[in-house]
Amino acid sequence: MIVEVLAILLGTAFLMLALNKFPKIAGTIAFFVSLLPFLAVLSWAGQMGINIPSYLNLLHFESMATYNLGAGSLLLEITPLGWFFLLLLASLFPMVMLYSVSFVRENAGGFYAAMLMTMLGTFGIILAKDMLTFFLFWEIMSWSIFALVLRGHDRRAIVSYLAFGSMSAMLILFGFMILYYDTDTLLFAHMHLAPTRLNLVALSMIVAGFAVKGALMPMHVWAPHAYSKSEEPFVAFLSGGLSKLGYFGMMLFMYSVAGMGLLASWGTFRDVSWFGYSLAVVGAFTAFAGTILAVMQDDLRKLLAYSSIGQLGYIAIGMGIGTPLAITGALFQALNHTFFKAVLFLAAGAVYYRTGKWKISELGGLGYRMPFTFLASLFAIFALAGIPITSGFAAKWLLYEAAIEKKFLFVTPIMLIAGVGAFLYAYKILYGVFLGEPRYDVKEAPLGQLVAMWILVLPLVIFLVFPGWVADMAAPILKEYGMQAIPHTPFVITTSLGVYNTLAVIFGIIGTLLLALVLYKWKPQEVVPHEDNYLAGEPPELYENISMHAAYKYYEPFEEVFLPYFRSGAEKLWEVVLYAGEILGTGARKIYTGMVEDYTMYILLFFIILIGWWLLW
Amino acid sequence: MTLNHDDWGKVARMMSKRSLWMVHFCTGCGAMEMPPVMTSRYDMERFGMHAMATPRQADVFLVTGYLAVKTLKRVVQVYEQMRDPKYVIGFGSCTINGGMYWDSYNTIKDLSKYIPVDVYIAGCMPRPEAIIDSFLKLMDMIDKGEAIGWKKYHKYYDQYKKNQRMAYAYRLDEVEDIKEDDAK
Amino acid sequence: MVDFFALGEQILVMAFLVTLGYAIGMFFNGFARKITARIHNRVGPPIYQGYIDVFKLFGKKTNISHGWIFDLAALFSIAGITLVFLFLPVAGFSMLSTDGDLFLILYLLAIPALGFALGAGASGNPNAAVGIMRALMTMLAYELPLVMVIVAMMVHYNTTSLAGIVAAQSNMHWAIFLPVFLIGAIVADMALQGMLMEKPFDIPIAPHEIATGPMVEFGGKHLGALMLYKMMGIVVETTLFVDLFLGGGVILSVAQYGWLAYVVNFLVWFGLITFVFFLALLINAVFPRFRIEQALKFYWKYDALVALLILIWIFVEVST
Amino acid sequence: MMAKELFPEAQELRKGRIRIETIKDKVTEIIKKLKENGYGHFVMLSCVDWIKEGKFELVYQMWSYEYREHVMISIKIAREGDSMVTLRDLFPQIETYEREIHEMFGVNFVGNPRLGEFILEGWPHMPPMRKDFDTEKFVKELYYKIPEVKEE
Question: What distance in Å separates the CA atoms of residue C268 and residue C276, rounded to the nearest whole number?
Fold first, then answer.
């Protein structure tokens, strides 16, 4: 069935192009086709030790497939790691398509075709058994994303995506070539990498290449542009889903392919390889800087983009530390981020769909107009900030525990303060968009968009109640790496340092909320309009043109303090790289003089050196 | 007098009287007399009184001095934003009969025509002792259930509103467009 | 099979302790005003003023709301702060959970704060929005040194559980007796000053600038709920400090002395939190207010620098 | 150059206090000249109602930090049917004074776009600072006639 799914995705993508004139029909078909990968996930759940009712296993997927092309063959197989990431992407994808049906209007066929192609690429990447298949599907995915970024008509986004995407592909390809040179095999399973310096360089290049997709600093430059200038359903999938593929790749090569032997060849620090430690430090820096930058944004999409970069940094921390606890935490964070960031981008899209505004300072008061969108984003924001009313806390807790367990004294405070910083921009979204003065008299978002958002909120609640399920899903992955799963029951996760009991939290919250409700409902109240406001006795209606919404430059003192340190950002760094490249390139161009005699001289020189070398040998 | 005061329980009255939070509307010169009342010389916090920043939080409304018609609009706004039970103290002669502004074309002369006043303090200026005395008087009235200005405001709302509109319009016959405005 | 009798007993104990917590919080309100008044050479209100104020606010005849989001403020702030109190080890006695994880407590503290912010924002008053901005920035400011000290303590005691930290300090091995955590206690006390929103860090509620900031639109029962939240917040935050540095006030072991130990420990705990709060009041009474960026610079430059020394100290201790 | 040298017709009331009586067409020119010659501070514009003459007197007051000298430029315009040109192009703060005088005396300043409701809100009567406006009568007919709230 695997190859059939790939074929159906490809076929539907072409069909979409034909249905360009009928966006609704195209969207509906695309939605139903997009459910296929999710059926595959359900079908494979049994093999991963997850028991699901048999009626959910609609299509029986085989666990591996080989598809012979003329020159070679595609080798596909599902692994526990792949299954986990496919679960995230395949459950996000149908919801994004459902949302798109009411959102995408212009040239919809192209949109759906490209989206289906990204899913095709994703499906292949996750199932790939060898490097060639992996790279083939990686490129399919990358170029489909490029097609979707092109639809934003923003030069900066397109150019930066193209540059960084190519760089990423080059780095990955060079890494693959070095690995192939060393091991003489393309199959991941047959590669037993010796702890040599060359292999470590190759691994670094591959990880750097994946870091581009995972938007780790300083490889993140493309992300804020691409995230903020494309259509929302796609951005939700890009930020929530596709960015995880970078971390999937990192995890695959760092732990499945390379293993601790190679990682530790550079040395270890408290049983954590320096390689992993550096990744954790980069991750912590990304988490911190992304958060600070997010606080300063006024464009809703840019804010979410930087927040996404910051939250993805946590995954890198977990992968860098590499203990069972940390890997579970990283996977949990990946899961949470997939859903809450998708919900936030979709909610932002719904707000745009109704108001046509992106700037936070121009929005406001939509909480009463779009209550369901507001509540969905409220849940997502709770998850983002790590408030223990959603699953967001458990992931952060696991990562903090992992860091403290390894006695990381300097990384942990940075992680924690980035977590606090998240409250700042979370409130900026809440206040700027949903609270305060109502400025637009709009309707609630269309039903399709609401359903998509609310289904994506569900996992955040489910994994609040059952954080142990993520540990269950992580167990086969850890087993593959020769690690013990962390001790857990569905409700309680135990580490060497502490215990997280979700039942105590849930019952505590329910109990105290009931208590507060009793206290609160005791006295009657009347509801007054928003205009009935204390402004030193001044009735606001006298000033019709003055907005009482204080969201413009909301964190101005914050910006005053931090902006000097963040002004010369990553783009400056890349400008330096560009400048160096230009100098080198100009130097190299001098060789190409365009004169035939010069070229003859070069050839002659080449042969003289060759002969000289042969003689000296 | 048909207003009964039994629904406002005795315990609640005791609490209410010992915790009077005050918002002061200081347009006039009377504001100058407040610092000694608050600080260590007279220390009104002895009685649980506290100056509050917004009318939503306050129980007592202290109007210090003259009110122009323009400020009367704000005073009414503030008074209506306060939550029941609420009390008003008229401070100084200006709130009683206009004081030295008795013939000014733009200041209202008698505050109690526009909002119900529970306690007046006469004088120009009243000394801090007089202010403290008025607070004690108000507490006594609350205890006995006599400070019922807020109930009067609810009961005779039409009359108060009519008077306010007359002042806003600077004429006794109410202007049509204000009526329409009110209907909205 | 659930033991309903034990469960009922536990709920009764929790209800009693929560009531006690609120009672102490209300007492602290009057206590604070009395102490401040005495420093100002005033008589001050009676020491039970806090109770009167809260009862009066809940006794208001009419209450206004700006809609259901506004109402969330009162609900979340009361529920959240009670929850934090239930998770804290009080005098070495954990109510809801014996684990009392410190990260959990730090994040649970955000529930009432965010709920409060939600309500304040929903009121639509610009002063409230500015106040919340200041509150969040103060939080960002004081969290850095606090978190650095807490991480140092977690690594030192090799546990992330607050109950574990309290247990490690039993038999009078209080953290404050170690030189490194004496410095840590001073750093954390500065952070506590911001946490309690006392001067010089009462930037969020600056009544003379932004009309009590977030609370500007709250009156009647809503304000009563917020006052309860603030009062319980004082108890929670000082207890957190006492748990971290002063062994949670545990001086007698329960295993040895039984009921007597509970009584004595609770009295000692009460004495210690009163003392910690008293210190904060002394600073509060004589200082003016910082501007927000001054507060940020104070915490991130000076307080965090000292906290960094503590981290380095612990790093050396762990590495050797 | 000091005001006395610029305008010989000016009379010196006492040291540092100069009064220039002129006609309304010359005011712009005089103030412009004074501004160029060190009288950089426009203090205020005031109005006096000379009801028996049937004239409004407008007094423009200027101050020089250089010479420490106060110059008053006084003009008279008819109470009814006359107007004055605005000087807001020379000193922007004049606009506010003109608005006030327009509201309180009803003097029309040609060219000032913001003449309208300023301090009084919804004032329906004759401008209240005019001398023919009987304040006492007005107060007695309005404020003292607003009825007390009758309690049943």
Answer: 12
